[in-house]
Amino acid sequence: MASKWADYIITAVRFDTTGSRRIISLRVYPDEGSSLGESAVWSFEQVAQAILNGSTFVTATKNSNGKLDKGASVELSLRTRRDDTAKDNLDNLPTF
C-alpha cells in the first residue's frame, strides 16, 4: 500500500450457517495510508451503519508476494428476498 484506498479495508467475511450466503461479520482494518491498523471483526450491521455515516470501504486480497491488492468498493444495496412471485420484486413494483 502506497496511499490510502478508503477509510477501511475488508479482507475476509463470515457467512451464516443456513446456506443463504448472508454475511454476518467481516474482518476490517483501518486504512492508515501506508499501512493498515489493527484488525477487528465487525458485524454486517456495523459496516452498514458506518457506510450510512459516510465511511468508505474497499475489499483487498493478498497477491502471490503476500501484499494486498486493492479490490472493489463496498456499497449498500436493497434487494427483495427470493420467493416464488416475481411481481412483488422491487423492479416490478409501480413507479411514482
TrEMBL record:
<dbReference type="InterPro" id="IPR024997">
    <property type="entry name" value="DUF3892"/>
</dbReference>
<dbReference type="Pfam" id="PF13031">
    <property type="entry name" value="DUF3892"/>
</dbReference>
<protein>
    <recommendedName>
        <fullName>DUF3892 domain-containing protein</fullName>
    </recommendedName>
</protein>
